[in-house]
Amino acid sequence: MPEQCDPRPYDALLLLSFGGPEGPDDVVPFLENVTRGRGIPRERLKEVGQHYFLFGGVSPINAQNRELLDALRTDFAENGLDLPVYWGNRNWAPYLTDALRTMVHDGHRRIAVLATSAYASYSGCRQYRENLADALAALRAEGLELPQVDKLRHYFNHPGFLRPMTDGVLASLAELPEEVREGAHLAFTTHSIPTAAADSSGTPADHTRGGEGGAYVAQHLDAARVIVDAVRAETGVEHPWRLVYQSRSGAPHIPWLEPDICDHLEEAHAAGVPAVVMAPIGFVSDHMEVRYDLDTEATAKAAELGLPVARSATVGADPRFAAAVRDLLLERAAAERGGTPERCALGALGAGHDLCPVGCCPARTPRPAAAGADWRGPVAKAPA
């Protein structure tokens, strides 16, 4: 088998995502899954679910994952990579445990996992690893032979992730009226998280205090700078920019990362900024938090202000992103076989770790998390 398309020791890839409701009757049960253990009343969940009901109770995320699944399978086939691709979600069908059970029944014992979250944080990395540990525990209770699962590294700075989003920013700039285009500011958006969670994100060496944001903020800033530099190289214009946040959902007394995108638009308008491009670099696809928080809420705020805005695309099922996943898989496979593969990364931070170290993106309450240095689950031997 040619080295460049050799997936060994892996015998399957699992696309692991968040999941979302696919009809009005799914909304509250889905939100109950998301918030399980937090004691949130059902009536409050119905209020939160209004965002979904505005879109017929259907989140776009599952359809987008199906498109990405097709793109991955197409890319693998066209590049001679003979590896099946499965899909499982944390919070809605197809559920992660069901997907892993199917993979085990299909004979797979060494599984690479791609999570649809590009950055380091508890909710964007370790929680996925905890979900994997929970799923493996469920399969163990059923008496099944457990596979080894390895989560692929963070890809926030992989060219196949950043270049499609750079093109999205360029396209959004072109959509703006010519008279405001050159003076437009760029607002790079991502999901707000508690400042305490941000400060403890990444490896222990990345952890910070005093609101610096740990690896979560540093990685987003690094990605934004790459895009800004690429836009300048393409257009000759240095657009002012800022990292801003959206989708806050926590209690008011707990500090979360700021500023919120709507607050930022108000500040930009007050400062005389002629236009803003909103670039959701924190998201892999145009799911509900993009469609509602940016396309609906933030766009309405901009219209209220009389501020021209455009929203750039996420990577979604872009063929370059599918190729990046293939690259990440083959890179990790080569490393598992003892090689030293080239690791593609743009920006100043370099390629991230393959194996999450102890203390990486810690949970408030310690729980087992698979695919990390602190995991003591089953380990499969790599084929010779």
In percent, how helical is the residue content? 40-55%
Overall 3D form = globular
Oligomer: single chain
Query: What is the mean pLDDT?
Result: 94
The largest β sheet comes out as: 4 strands, parallel
Give the number of helices. Answer: 14
Low-confidence stretches: 380-384
Q: What class would the helix/strand composition place it in?
A: alpha/beta
Tell me what you see in this structure.
By secondary structure, the chain is α/β, with parallel strands linked by helices. Helices cover 42% and strands 11% of the residues. The protein is globular, with a radius of gyration of 21 Å. Mean pLDDT is 94; it is low at 380-384. It starts with 11 loop residues before the first strand and ends in a 48-residue tail after the last helix. Helix 7 packs across helix 10. The chain contains 14 helices and eight strands. Strands 2-1-3-4 form a four-stranded parallel beta sheet, sandwiched between helices.
List the helices and strands and how they pair.
Blueprint: E1 12-17, H1 27-34, H2 42-48, H3 50-53, H4 61-78, E2 85-89, H5 96-105, E3 110-115, H6 122-141, E4 148-151, H7 159-175, H8 178-181, E5 185-191, H9 195-199, H10 214-235, E6 241-246, H11 261-270, E7 276-279, H12 288-291, H13 293-305, E8 309-311, H14 319-336
Parallel strand pairs: 1-2, 1-3, 3-4, 5-6, 5-7, 7-8
Helix pairs in contact: 1-2, 4-14, 5-6, 7-10, 7-14, 11-13
Distinctive features:
384 residues; single chain; alpha/beta; 8 strands; disordered C terminus; 42% helix; 4-stranded parallel sheet
